[in-house]
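Morning F.,

Quick status update on the modeling queue. The single chain you submitted on Monday has been processed. Sequence for confirmation:
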Amino acid sequence: MSAVKQQQAPPKPLPFQWQFLAGAVAGVSEILTMYPLDVVKTRFQLQVGTGGADGYSSIGDCFKKIIKNEGFGTLYRGIIPPIMVEAPKRATKFAANEQYTILFKSVLGEDVNKQGLSILTGVSAGITEAFLVVPFELVKIRLQDKNNAGKYNGSIDALSKIVRSEGPLALYNGLEATLWRHAMWNGGYFGCIQGVKSAIPEAETANGNLARNFIAGAIGGTFATMLNTPFDVVKTRIQNQAKGSVLKYNWTLPGVALVYREEGFRALYKGFVPKVLRLGPGGGILLVVFDTVSTMIRKHILLENV
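Structure tokens below.
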């Protein structure tokens, strides 16, 4: 009879500063790989109806029109704010999730349902992350809108003009919608990862473990995107409303209802395909890079046996 393989206890969480570093490397890797899809997603979310003659009918059509009419570089327009916030944002996502896991295990007990704990810690990490990203998201959205092409000369110019014309508090327009977006995504992402990993047997090799993490992260990213896209559509529209314009969208749930009433259910998922193409594989990239960097830190810096 073959020997029963002993299940290895999960490693202790990394110290906060190393969690932060691993999350930062994972986040920047993901955004550099997938950013053009974020520009396409934003264009679709800002498009009311079909957008007329200049509207976008598909992802390919959007890419083609952006490159033809605005130049290839437009696919990376607005990337500086996300790059600036990506390191602390993704670091906060993973580090906060780890710290909330420790906290909730202590408060609720070690035997708490694992998937329920993952959802709870994910939602909490998402809310924490949201407060950090709002100003950067707002500047990015303004830069990505084709109607603002001649209005801002880069990220710093956009930031200064927004503050000067709309006031510093304008940078936090859409905070409530961002809280909804990040709470839903993180709760869905970490909760789904826990469920998928429970269903997939432990890998026997390092490459097998990478594949397992990528599959879990990609499924988690896809599921989380399905959950949070309606909130993302409304957030995008709220943050693109400059002071002095008619504020059509104010709060998230009434905004979701307004989009549904005026444009139908499908409008709540505008930009879903480029978003899920980014955040499905992107979720896998995040988890694989985070775990890989964490393993390297344990092995080469903390000198742990891994």
